[in-house]
Amino acid sequence: MKTLFYFLLITCFFGATVLNTALAGIPAVPEDSARLQKDTVSDAVLTGQFRFESPSELHGWKTEKGNVGISSRHYKDGNTSMLWCWKKGSTLEAGHLEGLEAACGVYPGGIPEFYEPAFYPEGRYGGLKMWLYQEKPQKGVLVFQVGSSPETARKQPKYKFQVNLDFTGWRAVWVNLEEDARVPSYSGSNTMNSMVAHMAGNLQEQGELFIDHLSLLSFISNKRHSDLQFVNNKQEFRQADSYEILKPYRNYLESGIDSAAFDSVALGTNAGIIAERLEFLILGDSSGDWKERRSGMEKKIDADIRSGLSYYDELHLHRDHGFVNGRPMFASRDEHPAENGLVFQKVAQEVTFPLAMDYRINGKTASGGKLVDVLDYFEDQGFAAGSAMGTVDHVIRLNAIANSIFLIRDKLKKENKLDSRIDMLLWHTRMGSILDIDYTRGENTDKVRGGALVKLIAILLMENNASKSALLGAFKEYMDYVVGFAPGYSDTIKPDYSVYHHRGTYLNSYGIQAVNTMAMIGWLLRDTPYALSDTSLNILEELLVKQSQIAYGTDLHYGVSGRFPHQNSAIGRFLLPAYAFMALQKNENGGSTLLAERFNYLYRITDPREITGILVPALTYSGTFGTLDLLVRLHRKTGMRESSPGNGNYTMPYSGLSVHRKDSAYAAVKGYNKYIWDFETGSSNGENSLGRYLSFGYLITVQGDEEKGFEGAGISMNSGYHWAFLPGATTKALPVEKVFFQNKATEKYIEGYHRSFSRTAFANGLSQEGRNGMFAMELRDDVGPDKEKILFDDTFRAKKSYFFIGNEIICLGSGICNDDDRYHTVTTLFQYRQDTRRETRYNGESLGTDLALNRTEEDGYITDQNNIHYIIRNGGNIHMEQAAQECLVRDGKNYKKVVVPQVRAYLDHGASPAGGQYEYQILLNTSKNALKPFVTHKSYKVLEKNNDVHSIYHKQSGITAYAVFTPRATLGEGPVVAVDIPALVMFREPGKYSLLTVTDPDIRLKPWNHNMSRMPDEIVNGAGKGSLLTITLKGEWYEAGNAPGLKSLAHSGGHTVLEVFCKDGKSVDIPLKKRENG
Prior knowledge:
This protein starts with 5 loop residues before the first strand and ends in a 5-residue tail after the last strand. The model is unreliable at about 1-35 (pLDDT under 50). The protein folds into three domains: about 40-235, Jelly Rolls (Sandwich); about 250-640, Alpha/alpha barrel (Glycosyltransferase), CATH 1.50.10; about 650-1075, Beta-galactosidase, Chain A, domain 5 (Distorted Sandwich). Helix 8 (about 345-360) packs antiparallel against helix 9 (about 365-380), helix 8 runs parallel beside helix 10 and helix 14 (about 450-460) runs antiparallel to helix 15 (about 465-485). By secondary structure, the chain is α+β, with helices and mostly antiparallel strands. The chain is about 25% helix and about 30% strand. The protein has 24 helices and 48 strands. The protein is globular. The longest helix has 20 residues, at about 265-285.
């Protein structure tokens, strides 16, 4: 077996600069690495495998009645299988099954799986995986018994399990012998060598059973699932398994909805309208309006059809005595497929929709026939109602097969093949779950983006009967449920319109795709009895508006982009149709003016080709030609009217994110805490292997042409950027190879050193009237540490605050410390790829273009190449560099070392700092002449900057702002005397009225351990709690306007004491006024 990784030798160039070097210490992922790693991990737990390709593999197998042999009629591995021709009372025996003893032994502990790798301690997890095939179903069971010898296996087995035989086609059986098959009363030898099987029940006199691809393993995945053939007894390491499939199916079968009263005429009319709309979204109409968008969609569909036809040929389908054979197929999380095996979802995506479109758009009847063959092939291979294929984990790419069935529904019905396809969709969509919604939990985003439309299709395909009527009503309730705010860490939408997946914020993918699905389904169901509620529509509208507000053009802060920081645009890739669907939601001729105009702005600035990824069915789907028709028509209707986000300050407490927009400038800062994890990385695919510091207070500050995004400002994270020097963040100045991190599971960090929490709740923002705001975080690196205490260092601490007031950002830091004397700790001001046309200046003088610049100063001001100014005070120890910088860039699964011209400035806190601090001011939208007063006279005063409090007074605005990390009896200067809990406070005076804004930065979820690994269900779905914050102000103040969060206001000793209810990190504005005497 080849080694898992090898070091990467690179020759690469960037511009005229070439680096030819071995990237020491950094594991690179070679082109075929995914398969190599998968083989390595899988082989480690494989103790024996039987492919039944020759009579020699039947050695040791025997039957008392009937016979066993090799057959080519059906196979799951190679070209043949074992055929047991049984008779009533016969027994199948494997006297010495090679590998069984090891499979029943003790797993030594480690990482036994490639997909979603996790650490398992020493224990017995072994068993077997096998495939069974029948041409005819039986009313009985197949009983397996395992023992130390054939005799003990028959009379005193240690393990015993049974398989229901009421099926045709292939079925997988995965058995963890200790959990699923142990005989409670067993005592005897633990050395297992033999297995016997016999038929039981109301059987026919004789029959045939094919067995193939029998694997013996020392670890059977906990991802296995019960189905109608075999019910397991697995221990739920993965809490509340969202892929559980048997329970919802039984719930559907036992629901009794088929006997409910219904209006057949209304049902037929409304279901017909919805189906007609869906067909329009896929095929469009005769107008050809979609061409105006110039998305290249027609070329993509043509190319997909050619590719699909070619892929169809590779399946080698052929019919034999009424049965379809072809290359064997397996579940996506089956880590031990046949060597020539395919994955169900991959085949569905490559073949089904292209054939359906060729049939419907091009009128190719042959493609329609081929698609029917493919669907028969799927059913025979085990992708059928009642079959879990061993595991249905991540079987979420159902859109391709469902939409294809929808497009050829008439053909399938004519051939009497539609009903089994409907049953298959009812099974795989877990349809029964919508009949018994658990409102205390959130719904897995994958079930929405990959399953909601498929649920609707399954219902639409049904006959107009009572079940269909009940399911449509239940589907409407289900969609309102999934749009609603989800509790705790669960998917999908949070009260601040953050979108969650993997127990954390994910604003560029996953749930964002689900949001688009929600909006599309809202459009499909509009003006019918099944339309989404007004509450749901309002949530979706607010979420879409917020998404545009927190983006610079369409770019999002890299820290809210999960393990895909290089794909930080959600709007262009996934959400643009959602704006159109929602803008048109109320009716075709009206709708939301704000969203229509916001859509029009985004329609203009997005690349038309970006959206094509969701216009063909994959994991998610948003329609094809008809969706493009809608975009073009809404654009035409809206005309020249556009609405860009404009000025504002926005906080997202569930994301640890604050965004400030002022004229042409934009700033966004990201933190993490004990509820919001730090970063996510992939394993074998090299995803976000540099992202450790993305939530260490990374402040992205840009100004200029928003439509050009971050790259237009010179920030390009994957074409030469040093990830140890992230602006605003306090980090270690590590060499590039030390920032690189290859995730690995350990006994403590079961799913790896990522998605980790700190032990403080402080990493959130406050927004005052949506104009000005602040953000503060207590940086505590509580992860690990790693062996060398470099990238993960549990001595690393800092208090950080950012005050956003108009065109100013005031940045304070204190308590910066760690024990690392090998690397300096820094707070970066800015970093850009050098643009020689735009100079960087220090104290007004150009730094030139010399790439050998390495300069240190104490105080002063720097103007970066985007004319953003940084004023550093109080001995900031400024370090300025222009250099040919070594950086890492991701190229597929590899990371390459490149050299690019970089300019950056940072504050150097030295090695192993103890009590380090900083103070600097950023000025936006400020000309050279307007800058002078800020340099000569501070526009603010720092009231406190220590481990307890960061506070400032801003002179022009009259704003005093506090980040209270530790409550004290008195806060000293300023209008606030005290707060009783950690808080963010902003007080503005004077004016028509003064304004007090407060927030409890603690969103008060149930905290869990050190990272999200195996988070218990009661914590995942534990709702956040509110708090009562008591704040004391100097003087006597009175309420001067509506303040729903204010619970009480009292005067005592010349002070005003207010009690404010805080929840979900929301900022509470309280207008106040002093009364005049008399």
